[in-house]
Amino acid sequence: MDSIILLVDIQSFYASVEKAHDPTLQHLPVAVSGDPQRRSGIILAACPIAKSYGIQTTDTLWEAKKKCPELVVVRPRMQVYLDTSIQLTQILERFSDQVEPYSIDEQFIDIKGSEKLFGPPQTIAKKIQETIRNELRLHARIGMGPNKVLAKMACDNFAKKLENGIFWLTHHNMKQYLWPLPIERMFGVGRRMSRHLRQMGIRTIGELATFPVERLKKRWGIHGNVLWMTANGIDLSPVSRTTFYQQKSIGHHITLPRDYRTADEIRVVLLELSEEVCRRARTQHLMGQTIHVSCRGANFDIPTGFHRQSTLPYPTNQTMFAFQHAWDLFLRHWDEQPIRSLGIHLSKLVSDHKMQLHLFEQENKRMKIGYVMDEIKRRFGDTAILRAISLTPAGQALDRAKKIGGHYK
Amino acid sequence: MSILYRKNMLWEGSRMFLPEHREQLLKHYKQQQTFTPPILTEEAWQEINRLILEGLEGEFPLLIQYVEHKRPQQFCGFIEKIDPHERWIKVVNGQLIRIIHFDQIYGVESPSSE
């Protein structure tokens, strides 16, 4: 039997979890929204009833309220969603040991070899759907395919639109169902890419599939090749659990509560982010040798910002050292316009068991300070010890400690 | 044909994953690897008790199955001592000696009982 991959996606995940936890919300329009006082005050998820009023994810709260005045707005509880996502993984692992979470509400599962235990693929998909409904009270939509990319497109383009929420896309029926769809509906094609493709006369997925691959390769290199493969339903990626073991970079990005205009203010947040990133590196006993800084300008209409990287003289996980280089990098590229978001990443990670010693600097002591601070935070909470600068009005550390992914735990 | 094999790059590159989610997932994987010993009935415990006492008295070797560092282990040897207060047994096989705590044990087999 060939591989059969399923992509299991939960309908309106955050909103559905809230409804499952509170039965009184069952027949009401429910949306989960970030803090309206901050920029995260947008709709993160809306239940199907709320969507029937025209509410969409990323609507602002007041837009949503205008469309549906009786909308029940719930604060996000990120920890609950994470726990539910892990429960979902556990349910899927009963059907196969090959389960790969793709995001908080989407997971791949390879059911090859499970048919002897659970029946044919369609039956397995139905059983998975039923189990999720019975145990988590959530509605799962399942895309099926011979590989991950077809499973994903089966889910996004078909399963989500069907009443029973299951669709099987194969190499045989793909020409009939997938190829006539407009190019924007293909996995991996964003707004900009679709514009480029349309300029080349490619309007449907089928037209891309039959387009000479050499010309796509010439224009976009590997990416062009991959797009052509996706259009033809070819994807050799495995469903892999181990894909999470290896970490390639550690980073954080924050959308600021208001535009930050002065270097002094930005410096505070950059230092806090450096601390967080280095702390995560330290807990995993890693050091990074390349530092990346990115920011986005405040003006939405004229998108500005940059992403720059620089290589450090030696790998580090020390906050101040990483921060110094990040700050230099930022100042070199910043156009002195207000910014709305800021991020920092460490990559080229190596183990911290080996390190470069210095003749004149007391590296050891500085390294220990970091680990001691981490231990205090681990035992007494993230805000038990802070840099004094975090208490200035620009500081975000206190607020961030209460959040996961930018929203309250 | 232009078919590329890029491992899992297509999905790793496009994935939106919170660091907290990753940590929790790795914790879940780790828990899966830990061994949970079977829950034994009262009779099974009595049988284990009887075998160990008989092994000590009769000086015949026993195969002890126990949990160590969350993994199943087994050790074959003679019961040399039972400490009922500190609740451990000392099992000896030539030069090899194991001190096994009562709580670690989940099975005992006697080669001579077959």
UniProtKB/TrEMBL annotation, chain A:
Keywords assigned: Cytoplasm, DNA damage, DNA repair, DNA replication, DNA-binding, DNA-directed DNA polymerase, Magnesium, Metal-binding, Mutator protein, Nucleotidyltransferase, Transferase
Active-site feature positions: E106
Alphabetical list of PROSITE patterns matching this protein: UMUC (PS50173)
Site, Substrate discrimination: residue positions: Y14
Subcellular location: Cytoplasm
Family annotation (CDD domains): PolY_Pol_IV_kappa (cd03586)
Cellular-component GO terms for this entry: cytosol
SUPFAM superfamilies: DNA/RNA polymerases, Lesion bypass DNA polymerase (Y-family), little finger domain
Cofactor section: Mg(2+)
Domain of life of the source: Bacteria
BP-aspect Gene Ontology terms: DNA repair; DNA-templated DNA replication; error-prone translesion synthesis; SOS response
Pfam families with a match to the protein in the record: IMS (PF00817), IMS_C (PF11799), IMS_HHH_1 (PF21999)
Cofactor note as given: Binds 2 magnesium ions per subunit.
InterPro entries: DNA/RNA_pol_sf, DNA_pol_Y-fam_lit_finger_sf, DNA_pol_Y-fam_little_finger, DNA_polymerase-Y, DNApol_IV, IMS_HHH_1, Rev_trsase/Diguanyl_cyclase, UmuC
EC number(s) per entry: 2.7.7.7
Top-tier EC class: transferase
Limits of the UmuC domain: 5-190
Quaternary organization: Monomer.
Functional summary from the UniProt entry: Poorly processive, error-prone DNA polymerase involved in untargeted mutagenesis. Copies undamaged DNA at stalled replication forks, which arise in vivo from mismatched or misaligned primer ends. These misaligned primers can be extended by PolIV. Exhibits no 3'-5' exonuclease (proofreading) activity. May be involved in translesional synthesis, in conjunction with the beta clamp from PolIII.
HAMAP family: DNApol_IV (MF_01113)
Name by which UniProt lists this protein: DNA polymerase IV
Record lineage: Bacteria, Bacillati, Bacillota, Bacilli, Bacillales
From TrEMBL, chain B:
Top-level taxon of the source organism: Bacteria
UniProt xrefs under InterPro entries: YolD
Record protein name field: YolD-like protein
Organism encoding this protein: Thermoflavimicrobium dichotomicum
Organismal lineage: Bacteria, Bacillati, Bacillota, Bacilli, Bacillales
